[in-house]
Amino acid sequence: MNGEIVARASAPPGAEAILVDLYREHRLALVRLAVLLVGDREGAEDVVQDVFSRLHGKRPEVLTLTYIRVCVLNASRSVLRRRGVAARAVPGRPDEPMDSAETTALLGESRQEMLAALGRLPRRQREVLILRYYLDLSYADIAQATRVRESTVRSTAFRALERLERELGGKA
User: Fold this and answer.
1) In this predicted model, what pLDDT tens digit does every residue of 54-72 receive, in sequence order?
2) How many CB atoms are closer than 10 A to CB 121?
3) CATH hierarchy code of domain 105-172
4) Is 39 left (phi over 0), alpha (psi -120 to 50) or beta?
């Protein structure tokens, strides 16, 4: 009987099992999403880890991939805000994180150029393009994730694509 009690105590409750499954199945894709938003892998991994640790203990019905994506989006925004505050507080500090030599070598020149242009877009435009073309979300899903109207998402995506085309000189 004691073995049965120990086994039940160590088995994760329903919400924890759901969270573990979501983590195992979607962690890498969520880290990739966060990398596109915050600009570096270490920061992105921290964002995703922090999101999952904050979700521990939540009700099982809120633990959906859509909800977790929104949490990663919001946590990435918070990281960028903190970086902006820190950059203003410390003079001479670069505004953007620098890629390592390995990262630069691994990424092709055109991809680097596209990522740099994407990084220069305003936050909302960058988020909409990443959610639309990286995660392949519909405009309605993006509107729900970003909490703006669908028409705003469409116009934001249109403006962002126009700006990218101008910056890249028609290469996009």
Assistant:
1) 998 888 888 889 899 999 9
2) 20
3) 1.10.10.10
4) left
Q: Would the CA dihedral through 52, 128, 168, 170 be positive or negative?
A: positive
Entry pTM: 0.64
DSSP string, 128-163: HHIIIIIS---HHHHHHHHTS-HHHHHHHHHHHHHH
CA count, 13 A, side-chain hemisphere, 107: 14
3-state SS, residue 56: coil
Distance CA 118, CA 95 (A): 15
Range list for CATH 1.10.10.10 in the chain: 105-172
**How many C-beta neighbours within 10 Å does residue 118 have?**
20
